[in-house]
Each structure stands twice: as C-alpha cells, then as structure tokens.
Amino acid sequence: MIAILKVITPLLCWGGMMLSLARGIGSGPTLLAGGCGALFLTGSLLPLLVPSPLLVVAFKGVTAAAFAILWLASIGGIHGAGGEARVGHAAGPLAGRGGAFLASLLAGAGVGCILVPAGGVAQPMALMAAAVAGVSLAVAGAFAGRFLPRWFAPSGTGLWALILALLLCIASSSPRLDLFSPLTMRVMKFIHDFVHQFFESMLLPDHPFIRPRVWEYIGILFSSGVGFWGGVVLFFAPVGFIATAIRLTPLPSVAHIRRGAERRLLMASYIRQRRHQQAAPILAAAVLSLAIYQSRFPSVDYWDPAPVKVTADAAGKILIPEKGEPEIGDGRMHKFVYSHGGTEARFFVLAKEDGEYAVTLDACSICKPEGYGQGESALICYYCKTLIPLDTVGKPGGCNPVPLPFRREKGGVAIDAPLLLRSWDETVQATAGGGGERR
Amino acid sequence: MAECIIETRGVTRSYGEICALKPLDLQVRDGEWLAVMGHSGSGKSTLLNLLGGLDRPDGGSLVVGGVDLATLGEDGLARFRRERVGIIFQQHHLIPHLSAVENVMMAQYFHSVPDEAEAKVALQRVGLGHRLRNRPGELSGGEQQRVCIARAIINSPRILLADEPTGNLDHASTVVVLELLSELRAEERFTIVMVTHNQEVASRGERTIFLDDGILVREELSGR
After folding, report:
1. Contact B112 A265 (CB under 8 A)
2. Are A261 and B113 inside 8 Å of each other by CB?
3. What is the value of ipTM here, to two decimals?
4. A268 and chain B: CB distance < 8 Å anywhere?
5. For chain A, N or C: smaller number of CB within 10 Å?
6. How many Å apart are CA B168 and CA B166, to the nearest integer?
7. Domain map (residue ranges) of chain A
8. How many Å apart are CA B13 and CA B22, to the nearest integer?
9. DSSP secondary structure string for all residues of B170-217
C-alpha cells in the first residue's frame, strides 16, 4: 500500500501525458491507448528483468538526452522564428507516435524504478499493480482527451516540452531518479571550477590590496543559491525559448481579404490559435515547478535521529558504548554531537551489514554541512540530495560523509575528541559558504 | 424574391404580468428596410431587443440571419451580436472618455482585433474624417449618431437594428443620418430594422409595420 502511495504523483503525471498526447499527436485513441499502454506496462515491469541500478542509469541517461535535444530544438525554434509564417505545426504521424511510445516506455520504467528500493529487490506484486494502474490510465487518458477544451491542442516542440516536463516530474518523485539535484550540483561545480581555473590562469588581479575586495564578489558565486538558481534557469530555459519562439513566429498574411471584418476575424483566429499554442510551454513550466519542488522537498521519510550529546574523558577520548542508549549496532545511523569551545561537532556511527562500524562526520567535504538522513539502503545528503549507498559509508570522497578514525574497545567505539573537532572545523570552514571546495 | 433573413413565429415576451409582445409572426427579406412604428409601450423596442439577441423570447421561434436564437447560449448570443448585427441606439451609448475613432475601434476589439486605419475610413465614410480625435462630448447630436453608425457597420453586419436613431436629432441632422443609412445600405446591402415614432422617417423604409399593445396590427408598403 505504501509502495502505491509513492507512485501516485508519477501516475498522475502519466495520465497527464496521455491526455496531452491524445490531443497533440492526433493518433486514434485505440492505437494510442494500446501502444502507449503496452509500452508503459513493459517499462514498469523492466525492474524484474534489468538490475535496478542499471535501469536507473538508463532512465536518467535517456531523459537527460531528451532534455538536451529539447534545448537544441528550443534554440532552433528561436532561430527559425523570424522566417516562415505559421501558427504552430504538428509533429508528423511517425515522429509523433515514436516520441509517444518512447515517453511511455520511460514513464513506465520510471514508475518501476520508484517502486524498487535502492539496493533492494523488485516486488512483483507492487510492479504489477502499478502496471495495471498505468495501462488503465493510458486507456482512460487516450479516450478522455476528446473531452478537453478544443483550444488545447499542443503541437511541435511545445507538446514535447510538456511531455518531457511530465517525465522530469515523474523522475523527481524519487531521489534516485531525480535530475534536478544533480543539475544544481553540476552548476555549482562548474562555477567553482571556472573560478578556480580563472585564478589559476592569473586572469584576475592577485594584488594583496585588491584580493580581499575581489573575494567579496567571488564569494557570491559560492553562495547556496547559485547552484539552485542556475539549475532553475537551465530547467526553465527551453520552455521559455519555445514560448518566445511561438510568440515571435509571424502570423500568416491576411492582406488578401478585402472585407475588413472578415480580415480581422481571421487575424483574431490566428492570434487566438497562437495564444493557445503557448498553453503547452506554460503548462510545462508549471509541471517543472512541481518537479523542482519535489526535488527540493522529497516526500521520503528518512531516519534522522536527534544527535545525542557526548563528552570526552580527561584523555580526550569519546566512548560510544555498543549496548547503550542508543544501541549503535542495529544497522541504523545514530547521530552524536560533541561540544567544546563553542564548536558543536556532529558525527554519526553506523553498523554496516558486514558487522563493521563506520564513524563519520555528519557532513561531507563539498556540501554545506546540512547532514544526512537514512533511507532504504542509502544515506541522502540533505544539501545536494545525493544518495550514498550504505556499503560505501566510511569511505572518503565526493559527497560521502567525511570518515573519522576510531577504535573499537571495551564494547564500544572510541573517537579522539581533538581530532573530531579539527576535522569538523576544517570541513565546516571549507563548505559553510555554500558548496564547493575551498579554493 | 430575396430570401428571408428574419423570421419570427409566435414570438412572445412578458415582463412580469405585462405582456410586451404577444405571439408575433414576422418575415423580413434580406436587404429590406423595415420600419416599426407604434406608440410608447407597444413592444417596438422589445421586438428590436429580441432581434438583436439582447433579450430572449418567452416562447415561439426566432431565426435571424439563419441562426435560431432560441438555441444559443450566452456565448453564442454574444458571438451573434458581435458578428451578425449592428445596433444604433437613440441615446448613442458612446464611451465618453474615448475619441470617435477609439469608440469605433472598441467595436472592432470585441469583434476581433482593432484596426485604426479601418476605423478611420469608416468615420470618413460617415463624414467625420475631421472629427476623429474628438470625444463624444465635443460632437453634436447628429455627429454622435454618425459615430454610432460607423461603430454599427464597422464589423460588416448583415442586419442593422436602429432604435429611434433620429429621435434626439433636429430635422437637418435627421435628414443627414437617413441619407447616410440609405447610402450605406446601397453599398453594403444590409437589412435595416428601424424603430421610429416619426412617419416621415418611417417612410424611408420599404415597409412599415405597426405594433399596438404587443400585436402586429397593420403593415404598409412605402411608395419609395
């Protein structure tokens, strides 16, 4: 039951895709419902045949490629907007059906992936239930399309922007499939690397009097919002371009009509048609907003216990007993906080499947120290939404929590307090400004 | 014989207990100029409002320009008014803070899209090429009525409904307005249904019907 709740939003997106396709590509409802429904069914059952990580990678790869193509198409649309006079164009029947079938397969695969926990196994019953629901929605959507208002007839790049937005919304329902958070990370990294290379090339003045001033401005580029807003711009730009291209495309000439009223009526119909053409990119923008919201505030309940305060003995050793409160050997992440000299260093202990412990800071070396939550088979970085498989916790690098040296002794885990404080200070200093390593 | 552009069968309209129009059968030919006469309260304006889609009959059938008005919803009626009929009122109903050309463009706006050049031509046709930027308050009654005529014909209606268009005008202006309507009808070939109290004005039409207490009591053919 809980599994089905997870796919309500993706299934609604799928229904929206079918409605849009029913009005957009002009295929008969029987063909559309049959073809798209069958491919959704196939996609949603793929996790039974293909390993989940591989399917996730394939889904994200194809969706990202489609997004890149949409970018190109939208730029092409702007480029061509000044030329041919038209009021919108429909995709050819073959291209339309091909796109619809690919989108259906992807939507099914997305729903299937959402139902498979990270590192877990697919549950056939849940997948079957989702597949049946998806096929029912395909049939209902294909036939319900005819009851939509007549003016809603998305076509061309507008239609595909809407379909892709719905796919991205399906993807953002699960942190594993989400494309927005990785995009924001890449934007952040790009800006960081760009600035780094810029300085390395000594293109900016490095005079001791100028340098602090320059860093005031450079620091803005590392603020927490830059990655997010950069991602937002990249996400929304294609639909913005498409809407602009529709607006810029000249209307057909009506000069050949002599009667003024008839001429104006025809012109008004063209203007109305063009306005309706913009409904698809506007709807796509609304769906993308939902996708970004889901990405920023995932509706997943993570295990995130309140940090337990710990103290160090005279020798500077912090001892976490295995059989105390909390019991750290239960396979769940347990957070602790050590306060000293105004610094509060958070760390956690996690007993892994092989019985070994991992002791790490509740922070990584590249993101702001917003901490981690534990989901199914993975931790998630609250800042960048990266999933960290449990078996890699305790290893350094990337967005993994920074590992701490520890010893197992006297039925517990011993950590060196000064080392903990130093590690925390270094990590926080490096990342508190908002993501990206310190230059 | 021209086809019938207006056909009413048993049309009735009451306001509370007052029966403004009793079952009325009327046919108007395409291109005809019909005058409607009768004393106050005889149902003239009620008939005009029904023909213009400004009001709905209580019963009977009302087909105007091939459209059965009884079957139209509010949107359909609005479209009918925009595209099929032009209406001239005795009180002009011009928008006081808009200029003459803007008043005409307002009719274009609700019909389709405004076209200032076309609106200017329409005003030039009614002899107001020199008063384009004047507001209604700066125009005489006759000039205001001519703006109304330009506004009524700008969307090329098939039927022009005029509710006492010369009721507020002096004799000279009345003649100008009637001449103008004659010329425009000859050019545009629209049908005119004109309500009037004035026998001389009614005589400009080809046929006059007389209403009394909501009943069509008599009709006369004009010698014109």
Report:
1. yes
2. no
3. 0.84
4. yes
5. N
6. 6
7. 2-180+228-289, 308-431
8. 7
9. -HHHHHHHHHHHHHHHHHH--EEEEE-S-HHHHTTSSEEEEEETTEEE
- Residue A255 — φ and ψ, nearest 5°? -65, -20
Both tokens of B73, joined, read 């919803």
SS3 A381: strand
Does domain A308-431 correspond to CATH entry 2.40.10? no
- Whether chain B has a CB inside 8 Å of the CB on A272: the answer is no
Which chain B residues contact residue A261 at CB under 8 A?
83, 111-112, 154-156
Report d(CA B148, CA B164) in Å as an integer: 12
Which residues on neighbouring strands pair with residue B221, listed in sequence order?
A: B207
Report yes or no: B83 at the A interface, CB cutoff 8 Å.
yes
Alpha carbon distance A253, A225 (integer Å): 46
pTM here is 0.75
Sheet order of strands, B159-163 included = B85-89, B159-163, B191-195, B33-37, B207-212, B215-221
Interface test with A, best of B113, B116, B190 (most A CBs within 10 A): B113
User: Which residue matches tokens 């769940």?
Assistant: A332
Domain boundaries, chain B: 94-148
State how far residue A271 is from chain B, nearest Cα, in angstroms: 9
8 Å CB contact of A271 and B118 = no
**Which helix or strand (DSSP H or E) is residue B8 part of?**
strand B4-15
Q: Is B88 exposed, middle or buried (0-12, 13-18, 19+ CB in 10 A)?
A: buried
Burial class (CB in 10 A: 0-12, 13-18, 19+), A154: buried
Helices B141-153 and B100-111: crossing angle in degrees, nearest 10, is: 20
Could you tell me if A271 lies within 8 Å of chain B, comparing CB atoms? yes
For residue A245, how many C-alpha atoms fall within 13 Å in the half-sphere facing its CB? 26
Question: Mind listing the pLDDT tens digit for each residue in A367-421?
Answer: 778 889 987 678 888 887 777 888 888 888 878 899 999 998 878 899 999 999 9
Those residues whose C-beta lies under 8 Å from the C-beta of residue A194, and which sit 6 or more positions away, are none
Q: Token pair for residue A131?
A: 């597949």
Q: What are the pLDDT digits (tens) for B158-202?
A: 999 999 888 878 888 888 889 988 988 888 889 999 999 888 899
